[in-house]
TrEMBL record:
<dbReference type="Pfam" id="PF01926">
    <property type="entry name" value="MMR_HSR1"/>
</dbReference>
<dbReference type="GO" id="GO:0070181">
    <property type="term" value="F:small ribosomal subunit rRNA binding"/>
</dbReference>
<dbReference type="GO" id="GO:0043024">
    <property type="term" value="F:ribosomal small subunit binding"/>
</dbReference>
<dbReference type="InterPro" id="IPR004044">
    <property type="entry name" value="KH_dom_type_2"/>
</dbReference>
<feature type="domain" description="KH type-2">
    <location>
        <begin position="249"/>
        <end position="333"/>
    </location>
</feature>
<dbReference type="GO" id="GO:0003924">
    <property type="term" value="F:GTPase activity"/>
</dbReference>
<keyword id="KW-0699">rRNA-binding</keyword>
<feature type="binding site">
    <location>
        <begin position="67"/>
        <end position="74"/>
    </location>
    <ligand>
        <name>GTP</name>
    </ligand>
</feature>
<keyword id="KW-0342">GTP-binding</keyword>
<comment type="similarity">
    <text>Belongs to the TRAFAC class TrmE-Era-EngA-EngB-Septin-like GTPase superfamily. Era GTPase family.</text>
</comment>
<dbReference type="InterPro" id="IPR006073">
    <property type="entry name" value="GTP-bd"/>
</dbReference>
<feature type="region of interest" description="G4">
    <location>
        <begin position="175"/>
        <end position="178"/>
    </location>
</feature>
<dbReference type="InterPro" id="IPR005225">
    <property type="entry name" value="Small_GTP-bd"/>
</dbReference>
<feature type="region of interest" description="G3">
    <location>
        <begin position="114"/>
        <end position="117"/>
    </location>
</feature>
<keyword id="KW-0963">Cytoplasm</keyword>
<dbReference type="GO" id="GO:0005829">
    <property type="term" value="C:cytosol"/>
</dbReference>
<keyword id="KW-0694">RNA-binding</keyword>
Length: 348
């Protein structure tokens, strides 16, 4: 199911959101004193979710979550959806696909689109494909959530920002706010950010905080147009169990191997069969070099066994049934530079 075509731009964009910090406040007279800044941040942090039903029926819209690698986009999507549908790791470039996650709250359906972090290094075929996914996702949505790490902005952030279409409202989401200990340092950064783009709102938060996530729903809701829902009220993602299985294995692979394993390893599902509540899954981890294969298999096969066990447990929790999982490791040198291979491995 592709929701992209069903959306329409919000016809009545609110001029000034009531429950978050208006961006104009930042560009004009940014408070010089710490106390004022503290009050301003407190207001933005404290604003409550406003999930009151709209007067006339259903509301629904697409919200793209964009940002450079590792800023917390997938963590945010999972928190918003209320279930893990996008894999995360401490390594950058974990997300490789456009992943749609939905959450229906009262009469409003939020359709979130998580995207790969925009790649500015390595111009290989894999990265070109990832970037195409990001560019596709920011067009034709009702709202863009531009995620940065609070207090930071570099060339990689700038590249993503340059992709945002002018006519679509964008929220500046300053994530990992829990890591900011001196809030006063945020003031000049905020002012700079507002000069870079005409953000509709500024949301300082932590994707790890449930309270912050609830607040974000209220902030996003008013940008979604009144229109019928695109998905059922209980649906959480448009991705299949087969897709999720590959992603879960890739997450364990990324988490359980050191930084020495290059990000150009991928997972293909060779077999996915269901008999009642039992799933039989065979998967291949594809790497570029023999040395990488050894790293994944580990001494006496220990590492691969652990990847398999952790992936299986997570799949069993997700599906509620038993899973038999077999994983193989194969070397395909240069696959990430080969357009055709990148496509056969499931990248757009
Ligand atoms: N302290 C802190 N860490 C966070 C927060 N949000 C995410 N993280 C961590 O940041 C790391 C990256 O998170 P991801 O959600 O994988 O980031 P991403 O932007 O999806 O990364 P890519 O897949 O590379 O695009 C993980 O280790 C998260 O646990 C937050 O609010 N506070």
């Amino acid at each position: 199911m592709t929701p992209g075509k069903k959306t329409s731009k919000n016809p009545e964009r609110p001029a000034k959101p009531a429950d978050s910090l208006p961006a104009e406040a930042l560009s004009a007279d940014l408070p010089a004193q710490d106390a004022e800044l503290e009050a301003m941040l407190a207001r933005a942090m404290m604003s409550q979710a406003n999930n009151a039903p709209p007067a006339e029926g259903q509301r629904c819209g697409l919200i793209a979550i964009v940002g450079k690698p590792n800023v917390g986009k997938s963590t945010l999507l999972n928190a918003l959806v209320g279930q893990k549908i996008s894999i995360t790791s401490r390594k950058a470039q974990t997300t490789r696909h456009r992943i749609t996650g939905m959450r229906t709250v009262g009469p409003t359906q939020f359709v979130f689109v998580d995207t790969p972090g925009f790649q500015t290094r390595h111009g290989n075929a894999l990265n070109r494909s990832l970037n195409k996914t990001v560019v596709g996702a920011v067009n034709d949505v009702d709202l863009i959530v531009f995620v940065v790490e609070a207090g930071q902005f570099n060339q990689a952030d700038a590249k993503v920002l340059s992709l945002l279409p002018a006519g679509t409202p964008a929220i500046l989401l300053a994530n990992k706010f829990d890591l900011i200990h001196r809030r006063a340092e945020i003031a000049p950064w905020l002012k700079e950010m507002q000069e870079r783009h005409n953000f509709a709102e500024f949301v300082p938060m932590s994707a790890n905080s449930a309270k912050d996530v609830v607040r974000l729903f209220g902030i996003c809701e008013k940008y979604l147009p009144p229109q019928p829902w695109m998905y059922g009220a209980d649906e959480l993602t448009d991705r299949s169990e087969r897709f999720m299985a590959a992603e879960i294995i890739r997450e364990k692979l990324f988490r359980l191997t050191g930084d020495e394993l290059p990000y150009t390893s991928t997972v293909i599902i060779d077999k996915f069969e269901q008999e009642g509540e039992l799933r039989r899954i065979a998967a291949t981890i594809v790497v570029e070099r023999d040395g990488h294969k050894g790293m994944i298999i580990g001494e006496k096969g220990e590492k691969l066994k652990r990847i398999g066990t952790e992936a299986r447990h997570e799949m069993e929790a997700l599906t509620g049934g038993k899973v038999f999982l077999e994983i193989w490791v194969k070397v395909r040198s240069g696959w990430a530079d080969d357009e055709a291979r990148v496509r056969t491995f499931g990248y757009e």
